[in-house]
Amino acid sequence: MKQGRVSQTALKVAISFLTLNQKDDWAKRLPDGLVEMSERLLLASGSPGYNPSIMRLAKKRWMIHLYRVQDLMMPGQFEGFGHRKIFVQGQVEAAIEHGARQVLVLGAGFDTLCLRLAPLYPHVQFFEVDHPATSAAKAKGIDLEGQPANMRQIAVDLGEQPLSKVMSQEERWEQSVPSLLVAEGLFQYLTDEEVRGLLVEAAACSAPSSRFVFTHSVPRYNKLIVLLTALIAERWKYGVNSADLPEYVSGTGWKIISDVDDDPAHGVERYAVAERR
Ligand SMILES: C[S@@+](CC[C@H](N)C(=O)[O-])C[C@H]1O[C@@H](n2cnc3c(N)ncnc32)[C@H](O)[C@@H]1O
Question: Per the domain annotation, does 25 fall within a domain?
């Protein structure tokens, strides 16, 4: 990814919800407030092209057809983003019910989860990590929404700084407290070595029984996507089959506790949940 540039994929994921909201019964299925907040964050970001006219366009029903073209290259990805937001929010809520007191979202982009849930769970601390340029663009929207007292944004390149060091500098992060970590749409931007390194780092800063919910790209889709993502300077670098995950994470401090995800409705990324051992 180009240094100093707001993540184009993060912007694209966020704006896709304005269109998905027009399709079938997605308006009822997407988490409450996600679509409206995504729009406000995008507008506040000041990112070129993300203006009120484009937002109006994104809400036109015929835009759904454009995403059908995208789905030819990335089958199922348009609705896959919606499924993934529902899945991740469900995992976060369940973890909080079971005692998690910290939520850490890595590569948060313009995701609205922390901003929406922080006011609902004042006893939980929410943290978001992203590249400085993307964090700064999102911070403008967070200022307008009102920064929840129990939410922190951390601007850092995870390729440059070890996560455990970053979190050890966070006054509010407690290593001994059960946590829920999230990495949605992040791992494919890292190499295999970096992903495994990040898992080790995540284990080093979280307590046993913490959980890590993540998505991972599936190698069979990669060739064309690598080409496409290279065009917007955010090349996909990694992919692993769901069935291979238990071995892939072995030795990192995590154990896969979710079933093999071979659901094509999830698009070209699949979901997994790991537990800290
Ligand atoms: C495809 S976007 C996903 C955004 C968000 N998680 C979502 O699902 O809506 C990937 C995000 O990962 C972030 N990212 C990629 N590489 C990163 C790194 N080395 N350090 C921190 N953030 C990174 C990008 O800035 C971007 O916001």
Answer: yes
189 CB near ligand 1 (under 6 Å): yes
CATH code where residue 204 lies? 3.40.50.150
Q: Tell me, in angstroms, the distance from the centre of ligand 1 to residue 130's CA.
A: 6
Closest C-alpha to 155, from 1, 2, 4? 4
Query: Whole-prediction pTM value?
Result: 0.95
Three-class SS state of 268: coil
Q: Which domain holds residue 135?
A: 8-276
Cβ proximity of 121 and 143 under 8 Å: no
Q: Specify the number of domains making up the chain.
A: 1
Burial class of 27 by CB neighbour count within 10 A (0 to 12, 13 to 18, 19+): exposed
**What DSSP string describes 203-257?**
HHTS-TT-EEEEEEE-GGGHHHHHHHHHHTT--------GGGHHHHHTTTTEEE-
**Measured between alpha carbons, how far is 263 from 109 in angstroms, rounded to an integer?**
25
In this predicted structure, what is the pLDDT of residue 254?
A: 98
Closest CA to 113 of 39, 29, 37: 37
Residue 219: the pLDDT is 81
Which tokens go with 53?
């006219």
| Residues forming beta bridges with residue 180, ordered by sequence position | 103, 211
107 CA → ligand 1 middle, Å: 3
Q: Which of the 8 DSSP states describes residue 4?
A: T
